[in-house]
Design brief:
- The chain is an alpha+beta fold.
- The chain is built from 18 helices and 16 strands.
- The chain has helices at about 5-10, 15-20, 25-40, 65-75, 110-125, 180-200, 205-210, 210-230, 240-255, 265-275, 280-295, 300-310, 320-330, 340-365, 390-400, 425-430, 430-440, 450-475, and strands spanning about 1-5, 40, 45, 50, 55, 85-90, 95, 100, 105, 130, 140, 155, 160, 165, 165-170, 175.
- It has a four-stranded antiparallel β-sheet.
- Helix 6 packs antiparallel against helix 8 (about 210-230), helix 11 crosses helix 13 and helix 11 runs antiparallel to helix 14 (about 340-365).
- The longest helix is centred in the C-terminal third of the chain and has 26 residues, at about 340-365.
- The protein is elongated and about 90 Å long.
- Zinc ion binds near residues 418, 430, 432 and 433.
- Zinc ion binds near residues 418, 420, 430, 432 and 433.
């Protein structure tokens, strides 16, 4: 993996244009791109304010439409500049170093990597590049096979030797020498708390009132989830504990955003909000990508790889995981070409919802706390829509028995009004409690057993009373 120092600043405009011409761009277009990049006025922000305008010429402007192309066409010369470097993936697929704008990665044997290294050095000599060799910059990594002994790779650039690393952040994903997703998952776990707190802050009921639940869920689904699941659909080698960690990430986010106790059952939240597990979310993304790759025109590398994996029936590979997921949600992945994108996505959604319903039902049968959930369909429950976050949290606490009542949390405490043990069942039937509560608030005592809203009011009042009682005791 090579890190080009200030890549865009060092690109040599005319050299990039020559490369473009060689790749078949017409003179007129080359001239046009030259015009667009010929002159620029730059202003530099310094601690003492902005500088005057400075005129510069012949630069590759970053952030323009043609910027990435100009850069790519030049960086990809790493495959031509010196020695040929070809890694054979399968007899049909041979790859060179992969280039993504200013990111260069060589994949293959020790010998292959050393060729890439020598080519990088040549890029420095002939194309004005500088490759950083500092920590986290350019490195090589050995994927552990457990069979072959490790060898040292010798690469030198102008700044010195390129060192080995055990993990590397490449295009936003952490890869490691074990070839697992572990490091990436760890990264997400360390970030989720901050993200969830921010969503809660933006969507707080003090600011957004009855829209707060919708605002928070929108932020979560449309910004947090895509950010944390970015690229996960391409990973293989997931271990059970990686998935468990990912579910913990989602559980933590929901508890923070809705101020729910730490012991709140995960499946209780999933069922009320109609949310999928992380495993299912990634499954859906993987199935969508699979449809996209198989049905795409042309000869993109990923398509060639997948078709090779299908043809050679490899035992471990991305396609094999698609096949396994397909079996799990009961679809025939070999029929993917018969569906349009929309049809395919809708079918996957439906199948996953069915699975969620089934698993949810199993959890309800196992967990006493979830006995209050009766929904058949896995979808966001009506009471959570168009309502403030606080109200939703309270109703949810009633439904999944998360109120701070002794029995609910497995603690032994006495009823507020009598000597009996404080269980949900007792306080709901305790005559003394009822008497006090009806004196304090307006409540339909007859319907509290069947009506979640009335029951919630009852619990809130009970908790308030108990808190006052406890305060008095401490005074
Ligand atoms: Zn009582």
């Amino acid at each position: 993996m090579a890190d080009a120092e200030k890549c865009f600043d060092k690109l040599w405009l005319k050299d990039c244009l020559v490369d473009m011409k060689e790749e078949g761009l017409r003179d007129k277009e080359v001239a046009l791109i030259y015009e667009l990049n010929k002159k620029a006025n730059i202003v530099i922000e310094t601690p003492a304010g902005k500088t005057k305008e400075i005129k510069v010429s012949d630069i590759v402007k970053q952030g323009t439409v043609f910027g990435p192309q100009l850069c790519c066409i030049n960086t990809s010369k790493v495959n031509e500049i010196n020695e040929k470097n070809i890694t054979v993936i399968t007899p049909k697929i041979k790859i060179e170093a992969l280039v993504y704008v200013d990111d260069i990665i060589g994949i293959g044997s020790k010998e292959n990597i050393e060729i890439v290294g020598r080519n990088l050095a040549e890029m420095e000599k002939r194309k004005k590049y500088t490759f950083n060799n500092g920590n986290g910059k350019s490195h090589y990594m050995m994927i552990k096979t457990g069979v072959e002994p490790e060898e040292e790779v010798g690469i030198k650039v102008e700044k010195g030797k390129i060192e080995k690393t055990v993990e590397y952040k490449y295009l936003g994903n952490w890869i490691n020498e074990k070839g697992t997703v572990e490091r990436q998952v760890k990264e997400i776990r360390s970030k989720i708390k901050g993200m969830a707190l921010e969503a809660k802050r933006i969507g707080h009921e003090k600011k957004t009132g009855n829209m707060s639940t919708d605002v928070i869920i929108s932020i979560y689904e449309k910004t947090i989830i895509p950010a944390i699941l970015y690229n996960f659909e391409v990973w293989t080698n997931w271990r059970k504990k990686d998935w468990e960690e990912m579910e913990k990430v989602q559980a933590e986010a929901l508890k923070i955003m809705f101020d729910l106790p730490i012991s709140t059952p995960y499946w209780g939240m999933l069922a009320e909000f109609g949310i999928w597990t992380m495993r299912k979310r990634v499954m859906y993304k993987k199935m969508s990508l699979y449809h996209n790759i198989i049905n795409s025109k042309g000869n993109r590398l990923s398509k060639q790889v997948i078709e090779e994996q299908i043809r050679t029936k490899v035992e471990n590979g991305w396609y094999k995981e698609v096949e396994r997921d397909g079996e799990e949600i009961e679809i025939d992945v070999t029929k993917v070409k018969e569906y349009t994108k929309e049809q395919w996505k809708n079918m996957i959604k439906e199948k996953i919802n069915k699975m969620m319903e089934k698993e949810s039902k199993e959890k309800r049968q196992k967990m006493k706390k979830l006995a209050g959930q009766r929904q058949q369909k896995h979808e966001r429950q009506m009471y959570t829509i168009g309502r403030s976050r606080k109200e939703v949290t309270n109703l949810l606490k009633t439904k999944i028995q998360m109120w701070d009542i002794g029995g609910n949390l497995g603690a032994k405490r006495k009823c507020y009004a009598c000597e009996m043990e404080e269980t949900e069942n007792h306080i709901m039937n305790c005559k003394k409690v009822k008497e006090i509560i009806t004196r304090n608030i307006e409540i339909d005592i007859l319907s509290i057993k069947t009506n979640v809203e009335e029951k919630t009011k009852f619990f809130i009042e009970y908790i308030n009373m108990r808190e006052k009682q406890e305060k008095k005791k401490t005074i």
